[in-house]
Design brief:
single chain; alpha+beta; eight-stranded mixed β-sheet; four-stranded antiparallel β-sheet; 10 helices; globular
Length: 314
Amino acid sequence: MTVAPTLPGAVTVRVPAKVNLELRVGPRRPDGFHALATVYQAVSLHDEVSVARWDEWQVVAAGAYADRIPTDGDNLAVRAARLVADRWDVDECLSIRIDKDIPVAGGMAGGSADAAAALVACDQLWGLGLDRDELAELAATLGSDVPFILSGGNAMGSGRGEQLAPVLARGTFHWVFAISDTGLSTPEVYAECDRLRERDGIDVPEPQVSSELMAALRSGDPALLGAALHNDLEPAAFSLRPQLRELRDAGVEFGALGGIVSGSGPTVAFLTESHEASLDLSVSLAASDLCRDLRRAKGPVHGAHVVATPRHAD
């Protein structure tokens, strides 16, 4: 496809993907959401979102997953930009270019990342001077993962995942992400989780992050972290897509320290001992023909940040 270049006067923001190292899903709340306790890590798969003044609202798609980006008002980056414009009475339209390198509908917060980037970019473009708390408040109205993408690093999430607390951690962790052909609907996965729990008569407690995972992060030991990875949505994802279990088991057999469905899936995240080990695992998984694509990354990395601003003439 032919893609227009970034417009003059654009602000460009870079944002990471995320993986949930642990995701504990509690009972359904009165508002329809589930209580969550999760630990996020931002990883080095990035989107870049550029915003520039334009005579109408438009989305321009680029990058590896350009053909899977909605280009209408359903796009989260557009919703984020319009939210800022409405809240601060900015009467301007924007061209929003999304260079998409985070898998779409893969449980890695790709849409949330673009929303976070749009918030930061609009703040910069329009000179609003918003602080992180103000941006986080806006982010929480757009999605549970959006506030974390603003901050990046490692963080513990509660509520719907939008209430963040810092996490003591050390070290860099190396990941291989196995990308599936088709996405999984987040509401569908949560509904299946509820169905399985009701079927099995499971009494669902209020969720809490495990002490084992927190200790693993403090130690910086990838083997300990691999053993502590956990996702309550995994049985539901396996029920809806049985081949994901086969993929997860194959990655562990090929030497991963741990494997986990990322968020609501269908991406499966494998933790490895080192950069070299991630290369070896990628080769083995590619030969198995169990997934469509493989991406390697490391974490934690920084959250949304400006990488380009308009140049002003002297």
